[in-house]
């Protein structure tokens, strides 16, 4: 089993009702908007998905629901973010049972594992699932870097196929290409470096603001892929103030506010997160309102 690691894959938000239960109706509204825009996959249970607040049964419900919505049009991936190797293996096996076609996988949570421990953690999961795995390399937020030497060892597992490259070092795309060629696919994971990473050879984009602006996000990817760099850059420059809402500790609240503004989400978050208030809220709303006021007219990006 393998995934075509390319294109835009939204790290979708989890929708909650006013009673703090899963809002599967609004969740489907958003997923359908993503599919209509032409995304290439759906990633569940990441940071944007408020994974740390979700019960195991809620993660399973989200996986099963998404699989039923997409009906095989695009692969569904579940994020694995666990404290123990045993827990990670169990979560991966549940995701596979529930119909996920791939895994996004973080290093161990809470414990700052050493290089050998991190490698063994990833390998243990890879050896206990048939699903393809994308390693999420984000040392800025999660304090553990998966180095090139570590990938040398990890790639002995055939189903470790991709990296979500979030080191914030744009030259790392070239380092990965120089060392591994096409053996390790690169999905850029930082919205504000997305176009730069794609132009340097990244295969795709695990995106955040796509949750609110799916068409604009996919348009940037398709335009640059078709060599229409100027057209892609024009949209990207408009998009950048919005994309900066993703590189912020309140990214979930920020992006959910944007989803409300574009009609494909609600503001509800799960405690300890709380909706934005005061000047912080005013600033985010101003960024969103300015973006909407100047929203570009998109070309027929699906038929380039």
From TrEMBL:
GO molecular function: N-acetylneuraminate lyase activity
Keyword Lyase appears in the UniProt entry: yes
UniProt keyword Calcium, yes or no: no
Organism domain of life: Bacteria
Cellular component annotations (GO), alphabetically ordered: cytosol
GO biological process: N-acetylneuraminate catabolic process
Active site, renumbered: 136, 164
Matching InterPro entries: Aldolase_TIM, DapA-like
Binding annotation for pyruvate: 206
Keyword list, A-Z: Lyase
CDD domains given in the database record: DHDPS-like (cd00408)
Family of this protein: Belongs to the DapA family.
Name the UniProt record assigns to this protein: Dihydrodipicolinate synthase family protein
Organism field: Tenacibaculum pelagium
């Amino acid at each position: 089993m393998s995934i075509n690691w390319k294109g835009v894959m939204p790290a979708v938000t989890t929708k909650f009702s006013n009673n703090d239960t899963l809002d599967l109706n609004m969740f489907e509204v958003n997923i359908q908007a993503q599919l209509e825009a032409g995304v290439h996959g759906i990633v569940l249970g990441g940071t944007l998905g408020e994974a740390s607040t979700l019960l195991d049964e809620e993660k399973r419900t989200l996986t099963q629901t998404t699989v039923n919505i997409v009906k095989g049009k695009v692969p569904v991936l579940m994020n694995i973010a666990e404290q123990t190797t045993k827990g990670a293996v169990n979560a991966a096996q549940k995701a596979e049972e529930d119909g996920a076609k791939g895994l996004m996988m973080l290093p161990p949570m809470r414990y700052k594992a050493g290089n050998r421990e991190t490698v063994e953690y990833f390998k243990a999961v890879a050896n206990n699932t048939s699903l393809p795995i994308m390693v999420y390399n984000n040392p800025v937020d999660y304090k553990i870097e998966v180095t090139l030497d570590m990938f040398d060892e990890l790639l002995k597992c055939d189903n470790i196929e991709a990296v979500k490259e979030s080191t914030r070092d744009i030259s790392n795309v070239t380092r990965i290409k120089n060392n591994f060629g096409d053996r390790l696919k690169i999905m850029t994971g930082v919205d504000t470096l997305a176009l730069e990473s794609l132009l340097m050879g990244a295969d795709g984009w695990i995106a955040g603001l796509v949750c609110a602006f799916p068409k604009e996000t996919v348009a940037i990817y398709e335009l640059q892929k078709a060599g229409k760099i100027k057209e892609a850059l024009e949209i990207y420059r408009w998009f950048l103030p919005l994309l900066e809402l993703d590189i912020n500790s309140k990214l979930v609240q920020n992006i959910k506010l944007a989803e409300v503004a574009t009609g494909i989400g609600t503001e509800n978050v799960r405690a300890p997160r709380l909706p934005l208030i005061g000047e912080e809220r005013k600033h985010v709303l101003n960024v969103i309102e300015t973006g909407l006021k100047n929203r570009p007219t998109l070309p027929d990006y699906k038929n380039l």
